[in-house]
Write a structure and sequence with these properties.
The complex is a heterodimer of chains A (103) and B (136). Chain A is an all-alpha fold. Chain A has one domain. With 136 residues, chain B is mainly alpha-helical. Chain B has one domain. Classes of the chains: A mainly alpha (103), B mainly alpha (136). The interface between A and B is large, with 39 and 41 residues.
Chain lengths: 103, 136
C-alpha cells in the first residue's frame, strides 16, 4: 500500500479510537459535529482543490506514494482522511479543554 | 506568485471571521482553550508533514510558496495551514452549535407579529449578557 494511503488510514483509525476509547466527548453522536464536517468537507474541496490542481499545483504529490485516485477536481482522496483527522482531532481536543475549563 | 499559499490561508481566516463576530462562535475569545485544542494537533501534523516531505510523499511548488522553511524543511505555509484549518473547523463547530441551539429553542410565545421587538421590549439588553452563558 502506498505510504500516504497507509498513513491516512492509520490517522483516521487513531482519531476515532482516541474519541471512542479515551476522550469520549460524544461528538460522533451529535448533529453539531456532523453538520460541521459536512461544511468543512465542502470548503476542503475548494481550498484543497486549489492547492492540488494539476495545472499549477501548490502541493505536488509523488504518484507512487498515494493511491492515484484524484477526486473531486485533482484532490488525492487521501487528503480527505488527512482533513478528517486534523479537524476531528482538533474538535476532540477543544471539547476536552472545555471540559477542563468548567470542571 | 510566491505568496499564493499564504494568501489562500489568509482568505480562509477572513472568510470565517463572521462566524466569530456575527454568529457568536466565541473561539478567538477563548484563547486558552483554543491553544489547548490547536497545539497538540499542530505538533502531530507537523511531524507527519516533516516525515512525508523527508520520504518524498509530496513537495511544494517554489513558484507558489515563499521558500521560508521551518525545522525539518517544513514550509512556513504548512505550519500556518495546521493553525488556520483547525481554527476554521472550530469556528464552524461553534457556529453550528449556536445555530442548532437557537433553532431548538422554543418559539417565542404566541406573538406572530413583531416577535423580535416584543422580545426585546420584555427583556431589555437580553441579547447582551443572556447569550453569554458559562464559558465552556
Amino acid at each position: 500500500m502506498p505510504e500516504y494511503t497507509l498513513a491516512t488510514l492509520v490517522a483516521v483509525v487513531v482519531v476515532v479510537a482516541v474519541e471512542l476509547l479515551w476522550a469520549r466527548t460524544g461528538i460522533f453522536g451529535t448533529a453539531q459535529y456532523w453538520v460541521t464536517m459536512a461544511i468543512v468537507f465542502l470548503f476542503q474541496v475548494l481550498v484543497d482543490g486549489w492547492l492540488t490542481k494539476l495545472n499549477e499545483p501548490i502541493v505536488r504529490y509523488a504518484p507512487a506514494q498515494f493511491a492515484g485516485i484524484r477526486f473531486p477536481f485533482d484532490i488525492p482522496i487521501e487528503d480527505f482522511g488527512f482533513g478528517f483527522a486534523l479537524v476531528t482531532g482538533t474538535i476532540i481536543a477543544w471539547q476536552l479543554a472545555g471540559r477542563k475549563e468548567t470542571a | 506568485m510566491t505568496a499564493e499559499y499564504l494568501l489562500l490561508m489568509g482568505a480562509c481566516v477572513v472568510i470565517t471571521l463572521p462566524l466569530e463576530f456575527l454568529l457568536c462562535a466565541r473561539v478567538y475569545r477563548r484563547p486558552r482553550r483554543l491553544l489547548l485544542a490547536v497545539l497538540p494537533l499542530l505538533v502531530i501534523f507537523y511531524v507527519w508533514d516533516a516525515v512525508a516531505i523527508a520520504r518524498g510523499h509530496w513537495d511544494y511548488s517554489p513558484a507558489h510558496t515563499t521558500g521560508w522553511l521551518l525545522p525539518a524543511s517544513v514550509p512556513v505555509e504548512e505550519a500556518v495551514f495546521f493553525v488556520v484549518i483547525p481554527l476554521c473547523g472550530l469556528l464552524t463547530f461553534e457556529a453550528v452549535g449556536r445555530m442548532l441551539a437557537r433553532s431548538a429553542r422554543p418559539r417565542s410565545r404566541k406573538s406572530p407579529s413583531l416577535p423580535k421587538f416584543r422580545e426585546q421590549a420584555r427583556v431589555p439588553g437580553a441579547n447582551r449578557g443572556g447569550r453569554g452563558a458559562p464559558d465552556a
